[in-house]
Amino acid sequence: MALYTGTLPTRLLNDQQIRPSEYRKWKHAADRFERRDKDRKVLDGLKVSIPADGLLEPILLGVDDRYHDVRVSDGHHRAVALMQLGVAEFRFRWCWIRAYRVEHARDPFPYHLLGL
C-alpha cells in the first residue's frame, strides 16, 4: 500500500490548526525567510515554480501521538510560498511523530484533529 496523499485548504496553515514545527508562528517563519538570503532565494524560486508547475513535492504533516496536534514536519518554505501566493489547496503526506520514531502513514489522515 502506498503512502497516503491528500489535499487540504491552504487556509488551514495557521497558528491553530496546522502549525509550523520549527517556528513559533507562521509569521516568524515568513519573516526569517525574508531576512536570510538563502531562504529568500528558495522562497522566490518556489513563488515562480508553483504557479508554473504546481506543488511538485507534497508538504509532510506530522501528528504528535501524545497531543494530537498537527504540524508541518517538512515543507515550511513551500507552505509559506503557498500562503503568499494565495493558492487555495495543497497536497500533503503525513506521519505519526512517536516518542522514539517517525511512522510514515498509509492510512487516511485523521482530519478530525483539524476540527473539520
What can you tell me about this protein's structure?
The chain is of the alpha/beta class. The protein has a single domain, classed as Conserved hypothetical protein from pyrococcus furiosus pfu- 392566-001, ParB domain, CATH 3.90.1530. 32% of the residues lie in helices and 27% in strands. It is built from three helices and six strands; from the N terminus they run E-E-H-H-E-E-H-E-E. It has helices at 26-35, 37-53, 76-85, and strands spanning 5-9, 18-20, 59-64, 70-74, 89-97, 102-104. Strands 1, 2, 3, 4, 5 and 6 form a six-stranded mixed sheet that branches. A hairpin with a 4-residue loop joins strand 5 and strand 6 (102-104). Helix 1 (26-35) crosses helix 2. The longest helix is centred in the middle third of the chain and has 17 residues, at 37-53. The chain is globular and about 35 Å long. The two termini are 26 Å apart. The relative contact order is 0.25. This is ParB/Sulfiredoxin domain-containing protein. InterPro entries: ParB/Sulfiredoxin_sf (IPR036086). It comes from Streptomyces nymphaeiformis.
Task: Give the SSE layout.
Layout: E1 5-9, E2 18-20, H1 26-35, H2 37-53, E3 59-64, E4 70-74, H3 76-85, E5 89-97, E6 102-104
Parallel strand pairs: 2-4, 3-5
Antiparallel strand pairs: 1-5, 3-4, 5-6
Helix pairs in contact: 1-2, 2-3
